[in-house]
């Protein structure tokens, strides 16, 4: 049984029966049959379907967004924006997908070789609750364009979203079996990965989940893409627009109530501008309004669950016990719901184990550094390497940060955000492989050489 609980109230929304083994088998057989047909579909058929799905998401964006807000607590306005972003991804691959799949010819000693991108088969996606639509669609859109078919194992607390995605794609005219939701517990994932009909797996989630899925995929000799945790640095140098950087840092930290892999979690600020940055940043964080996520005036809703809030509170307790100072906030708010106040943490000891963990809540860690070398060293001091944001107007500093920060992505003078056209992914314990852009489309395709 899978249960969806509204984190704003603590009330149960719905319960869902988990698929039986017979139900799983039925869906795997359907995916296998659907792939046999979809793999030979032409690009026009695929792009037309992507366009219709985009239209369907836009037409139902308010209803779809309300499901996400009720199930995991993000503000309704941000949930609507998330659904709209999904439509842009479908349209991006509809417009640019065929060009990404064009053949390339090479001369060889005996003639020519043509490199062709060919579909592989059913791909399993294991997805989290924090961006319950976007995380799935950034897998689904390239999957459809590639000629593959998709199977979704979504987080247990957002089964309403999972069902809505499947229903919306079917309503747009997708063939039966092209995309299917699997309402299953995590214990069933390894068995599905092992099934010969499933060719690869992609996961967005925790390190533990990533290790489990990677182990299962490795045992079955199957390709895996992993997008795991992040503890993204947000570096501010003296040449930056400090007021803009500080204001953006607030948004970058509290977006999705701090529950984003690419949230700016560690503010690393040059000593020359530290005081000016902190004055604006602290004022902004103190002004953050936590409340009803359905209210347009709310800045951030509750955390996704009472358990998630307990995890963050425990991390803060460990850090302050080790010498860090919580300037304000970071407290569980009274009343119903998993609400928490935004906060700022300073004097964080880099050698404390929790300083090397992902803080998945609306509390920022702030570090003062003396120069660029120390900023880079502090940025790279954690085991994660997903995203990063750098604020400087010095050309040499921009180049140095882009080269030397250990991360899959670096945004310069802007908040890091994913986009359909740009590759998304990390290094170190943040995972491997890429989503989005042409690289995400190619991850689960057979690059076949045809010799003539």
From TrEMBL:
Pfam families: Aldedh. Transmembrane segments: none annotated. InterPro entries: Ald_DH/histidinol_DH, Ald_DH_C, Ald_DH_N, Aldehyde_DH_dom, ALDH_GabD1-like, GABD/Sad-like. It comes from the Bacteria. Residues 3-450 form the Aldehyde dehydrogenase domain. GO terms for molecular function: aldehyde dehydrogenase [NAD(P)+] activity; succinate-semialdehyde dehydrogenase (NAD+) activity. Keywords: NADP, Oxidoreductase. The keyword NADP applies. Belongs to the aldehyde dehydrogenase family. This is Succinate-semialdehyde dehydrogenase/glutarate-semialdehyde dehydrogenase. The lineage of its organism: Bacteria, Pseudomonadati, Pseudomonadota, Alphaproteobacteria, Sphingomonadales.
């Amino acid at each position: 049984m899978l249960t969806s609980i509204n984190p704003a109230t603590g009330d149960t929304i719905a319960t869902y029966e988990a698929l039986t083994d017979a139900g799983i088998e039925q869906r795997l057989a359907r995916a296998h049959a659907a792939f046999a047909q979809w793999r030979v579909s032409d690009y026009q058929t695929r792009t037309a379907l992507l366009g219709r799905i985009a239209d369907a998401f836009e037409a139902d964006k308010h209803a779809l967004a309300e499901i996400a807000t009720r199930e995991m607590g993000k503000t309704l306005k941000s949930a609507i924006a998330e659904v709209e972003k999904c439509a842009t991804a479908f349209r991006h691959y509809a417009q640019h997908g065929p060009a990404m799949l064009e053949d390339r010819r090479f001369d060889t000693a005996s003639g020519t070789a043509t490199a062709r991108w060919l579909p592989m088969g059913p791909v399993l996606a294991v997805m989290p609750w924090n961006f319950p639509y976007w995380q799935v669609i950034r897998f689904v859109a390239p999957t459809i364009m590639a000629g593959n078919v998709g199977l979704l194992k979504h987080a247990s607390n957002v089964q309403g979203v999972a069902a809505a995605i499947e229903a919306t794609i079917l309503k747009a005219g997708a063939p039966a079996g092209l995309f299917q939701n699997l309402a299953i517990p995590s214990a069933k994932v390894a068995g599905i990965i092992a099934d010969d009909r499933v060719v690869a797996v992609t996961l967005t989630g925790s390190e533990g989940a990533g290790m489990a899925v990677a182990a299962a995929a490795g045992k079955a000799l199957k390709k895996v893409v992993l997008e795991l945790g992040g503890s993204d640095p947000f570096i501010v140098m003296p040449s930056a627009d400090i007021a803009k950087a500080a204001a953006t840092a607030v948004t970058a930290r509290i977006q999705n109530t701090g529950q984003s892999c690419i949230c700016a979690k560690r503010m690393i600020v040059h000593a020359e501008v530290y005081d000016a940055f902190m004055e604006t940043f602290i004022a902004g964080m103190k002004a953050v309004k936590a409340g009803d996520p359905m209210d347009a005036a709310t800045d951030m809703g509750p955390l996704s669950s009472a358990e998630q809030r307990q995890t963050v509170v425990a991390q803060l307790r460990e850090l302050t016990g080790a010498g860090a100072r919580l300037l304000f906030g970071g407290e569980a708010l009274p009343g119903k719901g998993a609400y928490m106040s935004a906060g700022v943490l300073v004097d964080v000891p880099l050698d404390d184990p929790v300083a090397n963990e992902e803080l998945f809540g609306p509390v920022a860690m702030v570090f003062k550094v003396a120069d660029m070398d120390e900023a880079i060293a502090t940025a790279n001091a954690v085991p994660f390497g997903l995203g990063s944001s750098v604020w400087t107007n010095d050309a040499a500093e921009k180049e140095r940060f882009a080269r030397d920060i250990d991360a899959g992505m670096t945004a310069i003078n802007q908040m890091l955000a994913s986009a359909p056209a740009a590759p998304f992914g990390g290094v170190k314990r943040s995972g491997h492989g890429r989503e989005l852009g042409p690289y995400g489309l190619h991850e689960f395709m057979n690059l076949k050489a045809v010799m003539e």
